[in-house]
Each structure stands twice: as C-alpha cells, then as structure tokens.
# Entry
Amino acid sequence: MTTTTILLSEAQIRDRIHTLAAEIERDYPEGEDIHLVGVLKGGFMFMADLVRAMTARVSMDFMALSSYGKGTTSSGQVMVLKDVDSSLEGRNVIIVEDIVDTGLTLHYLQDILKARAPRSVRTACLLSKPSRRKVDVQVDYIGFTIDDHFVVGYGLDYAEKYRNLPYIAVLGE
Ligand code: IMP
Ligand code: MG
# Structure
C-alpha cells in the first residue's frame, strides 16, 4: 500500500497563492490586462486558485504538453498536444505551471510563446526543484522551493493518480 506524507498543507498553499496573486497584480500597471496560460494537466488546480485570488482584469487559456513521454526523465523533446485558442500578440502572458524540475519543458514553452509577439512573457510555478535543473530557465513567481522529492497532489500525479489531493505530498512505501 502506498502512503503519502504531507509536505505542504492546504492552508500553506492557500496563503502562499494569495500572496503570489497580490504580487503579480502589483507588478502590472493598472489598466493592463493579464493573460494566464495554464499548462495541463498538472497546472489546473494552481490556476483555479490563482485566478480566484485575482481581479477581473485576468483572462485565461490552456495548453497541454507531453514532457516525459513514458519514462520518468525529461528528454527536452516536448510536444504540443493542445495549443491556446486565441492569439497572444500584444498580451501580457503569464505561464502557469505546476512544477519546474529539469526546466526543459518550461524552457521550450517559453521559447514558443515568446515567438508569438506577446507584449511580455513571465512564468508562475507553484513548485520549483532547483537541485534538478538542467537548463537555466527564468521563473518569475515561485510558490515554494522544495528539495528533490517526487511529489503528488494539488494537480500533480504519479501515473495519473493523486491529482485530486488538496495538498502536496511525498509518495512513500
Ligand atoms: P521538467 O521538464 O523536468 O522541468 O518537467 C516538468 C514536468 O514534469 C512538470 O510539469 C510535471 O508534469 C512533471 N514533474 C516533475 N517533477 C514532478 C514531481 O515531483 N511530481 C509530479 N510530476 C513532476
Ligand atoms: Mg507540468
């Protein structure tokens, strides 16, 4: 039987996201719209809580990428499974990701979105594992920096399970 140990509680996540949302809104001049691009599936819960902590000037869209394929290590070969529905031209885009591990997926995504003539592109990630980084990638807003654990919950999965946990946990025996 697999057990999970809570690393970040619901309350910790909620508080941090409220602080992040306020920080993000402070960074963009009043009157400027903010377009959030959520990365499916892992980023869905973070996106849902982040937008509810923000004001009405926010719009959103989603992308789906395949990053790991069937293995457990990032190859850097990323495929766009679902693209955004509307143009990013002239918009203040913020990529909303669950976790930055090696950074390969995000690095690739930033490159393709920057090529679409947005006004700006920034990145918000709930979690970052800096000790695993293979490429130097800019993350403007980080919820929590964590050690090298494989974590699940709050959108993150192991073999498509545990995404629905309302907290972040480390998988055990
Ligand atoms: P990267 O390209 O190595 O940065 O991989 C990023 C993607 O791998 C994330 O968006 C997640 O989908 C997945 N991933 C990386 N670390 C974890 C983890 O600890 N738990 C669950 N998924 C992870
Ligand atoms: Mg992801």
